[in-house]
Amino acid sequence: MAFELGEGPESALKKETWKDNLSRVSSAPGALTSGYGIGFQVQRRGELVMYGHGGSVAGYRASALFDPQTKIGVIVMNNVGGGKFNAGNLAQRMLETIVRGAPPPPRHQHMLSYVI
After folding, report:
1. How far is Cα 40 from Cα 23, in angstroms, rounded to an integer?
2. What pLDDT does residue 109 have?
3. Residues 64 and 74 sit within 8 Å (Cβ to Cβ)
4. Where are the domains of the chain?
5. Which of 36, 50, 94, 107 qualifies as a FRET site for 29, CA 20 to 30 Å off?
6. How far is CA 71 from CA 58, 80, 82, in A?
7. CA atoms within 13 A of residue 23's CA, in its CB half-sphere
């Protein structure tokens, strides 16, 4: 998640390239509520714009979403296939809830961490 929030090593991805990539959404519906960028998906809920991606293999599902403005991200992982649980929906609700209640990050702090 630190890498997704732009805190990764410059040797892997320059900060300028990271910022540029967040501004490149290649497809989106007319309402601009969702779209795709370079290696991530974008979803808008009101003023909150969430970046990230989900994925799955047999029996496992995960979703990682982040808000670059507050430098808050969440990761949800599930190791049970089937059922009504949706890792992506839970990640969205968690990020919305945390961002709404979070104070702005201090200048010296790079990332906030929550474990639920």
Report:
1. 11
2. 46
3. yes
4. 3-101
5. 94
6. 31, 29, 32
7. 6
How many angstroms separate the CA atoms of 97 and 114, rounded?
A: 12
CB of 38 closer than 8 Å to CB of 21: yes
* pLDDT at position 15: 86
User: What is the reported pLDDT for 37?
Assistant: 80
> Phi, psi at residue 74, to the nearest 5°?
-130, 150
Which three-class secondary structure state does DSSP give residue 20?
Answer: helix
Q: What is the dihedral of CA 105, 55, 36, 109, to 10 degrees?
A: 10
Residues in contact with 1: Cβ distance below 8 Å, sequence separation at least 6, in sequence order: 64, 66, 73, 74, 75, 111
Low-confidence ranges of the chain (pLDDT < 70): 27-32, 102-116
DSSP 70: T
Q: What is the pLDDT of residue 55?
A: 87
CA distance 82 to 73: 25
Q: Which tokens belong to 37?
A: 């960028």
Element (H, E) at 67: strand 60-67
CA 101 to CA 99: how far, in whole Å? 5
